[in-house]
Design a protein that fits this description.
Elements (H helix, E strand, L loop, with lengths): L3 E2 H4 L5 E11 L5 E5 L1 E2 L13 E3 L2 E9 L2 E6 L8 E6 L1 H25 L3 E6 L4 E5 L5 H16 L5 E3 L3 H5 L18 E4 L3 E4 L14 E9 L2 E8 H22 L6 H32 L6 E5 L5 H13 L6 E8 L2 E8 L5 H12 L2 E4 L3 E6 L3 H9 L3
Parallel strand pairs: 1-4, 16-17
Antiparallel strand pairs: 2-3, 2-8, 3-7, 5-6, 5-8, 6-7, 9-10, 10-15, 11-12, 12-13, 14-15, 17-18, 18-20, 19-20
Length: about 400
């Protein structure tokens, strides 16, 4: 027995009565319910299933099977009883908005760029559309403008089920060849924007979408993936980004339209300071190393050095005096030191660091000239082990 599809008759129906025809166990302590009629949309056409309440029981998922619509429920319902069902309308309406918006965008991209929609996902955060080719930023902005003009025109969203003969004469988008489509073929038309075979549900007029926002495209499988937001989801995204810009504006003491330039100036200043600090560190490391110029083995401790600075200080120590030399630089604190070990001449820093690890319980690696890692040992133990190296 086929289920009467109330959502096809009236996609704005939010509640309904139905008779339970069957109840069977489902996975993970759920139950599958079959009704004589339903306004819960089953997953299909790229659109997720509806959720809501049926007979006081939560509906978690909905699927169509051989003309029957089965509802995944959190508890069983007795076959034969009549129950009331209520949709999560806010979620359903958002899905209708986004699905209709996807039609408009895909249709306009097809017209302008001759590209096809080859992937469509309606997630909880946004819709993504995959196209089989590149779309440059200027063209995507044109698509967004035209899509919103379609919304502002408040055009009717038309649905029809043409006969096979009528379909043969029509031009419409479809992810499948006409010969592979089974049963009644439903055509959804947004005048001047799109004509597409689709089994999903949509808003009645484009103005209900509110607005359409396309997000920065990403290369994907030889084409491009575009994000889409509309309605309250687009409004929420705008509010979040406006809040971020406002915060940046406040932190930089810059007007909002000038924040990008302010950030660029800040990055330039930061790079100049980084270079100045690097030069100052080189001079500091050289001055320190000069004090060890006559020592064949140098051990220096600076708790604040970063891993990169450890290596630079070790290199300065090697350059301060005649080869061969060994230089060990430590940072951190007693019992938990980071180190850089430098070697010149015939000495091999990697082999020597392994010998220190065995003695001190350390770990790390490197090459013949430099090795870096850490020691779980006290300072006196490290000094003794270092000066005992061959």
């Amino acid at each position: 027995m086929s289920t009467r599809l109330l959502y096809r008759e009236d996609p704005y129906l939010r509640s309904f009565s139905a008779r339970v025809l069957a109840c069977e166990p489902g996975p993970n302590d759920t139950f599958r319910l079959l009704l004589d009629q339903t306004c819960f949309y089953p997953e299909g056409g790229g659109q997720p299933a509806d959720t809501g309440i049926l007979g006081g029981v939560p509906i978690l998922d909905v699927h169509e099977r051989n003309g029957e619509v089965w509802h995944t429920a959190g508890a069983p319902l007795e076959p034969g009883q009549t129950v009331e069902g209520t949709l999560d309308w806010a979620r359903r309406f958002s899905l209708m908005q986004h699905h209709t918006a996807e039609h408009i965008v895909s249709g306009i991209v097809h017209q302008l760029c001759k590209l096809d929609n080859v992937g469509f996902h309606m997630g909880s955060a946004m819709v993504t559309i995959d196209f089989n080719g590149e779309i440059d930023p200027d063209t995507l902005q044109t698509v967004e403008t035209l899509a919103n003009r379609t919304v502002f025109a408040n055009r009717p969203v038309e649905t029809a089920c043409p006969s096979p003969a009528e379909l043969e004469q029509m031009e419409f988008r479809s992810k499948k060849a006409l010969s592979s489509l089974e049963g009644e073929i439903r055509i959804v038309t947004v005048p001047e924007a799109d004509c597409c075979a689709c089994c999903g549900i949509h808003v009645g007029h484009t103005g209900e979408i509110g607005c359409i926002k396309l997000l920065a495209p990403q290369r994907y499988k030889g084409g491009v993936r575009v994000g889409l937001l509309c309605g309250e989801a687009a409004l929420a995204d705008y509010r979040e980004k406006e809040g971020q810009i406002s915060a940046i504006s406040h932190l930089l003491s810059a007007k909002q339209p000038e924040t990008a330039d302010a950030v660029r100036r800040l990055l330039t200043q930061n790079e100049e300071l980084r270079l100045a600090l690097s030069e100052a560190n080189k001079r500091l490391f050289a001055l320190r190393a000069a004090g060890f110029a006559e020592q064949p083995r140098a051990l220096l401790i600076d708790p604040s050095l970063t891993p990169g600075e450890l290596r630079l200080q070790a290199a300065a120590l090697l350059e301060a005096g005649p080869a061969p030399r060994l230089a060990l630089v430590l940072a951190g604190e007693d019992g938990n030191f980071r180190y850089a070990l430098g070697a010149s001449g015939e000495a091999d820093a990697r082999s020597l660091s392994r010998a220190l690890h065995q003695t001190l319980g350390g770990k790390g690696g490197g090459n013949r000239e430099f090795a870096q890692g850490s020691f779980c040992a006290g300072l006196q133990e490290i000094k003794q082990a270092f000066h005992s190296l061959p």
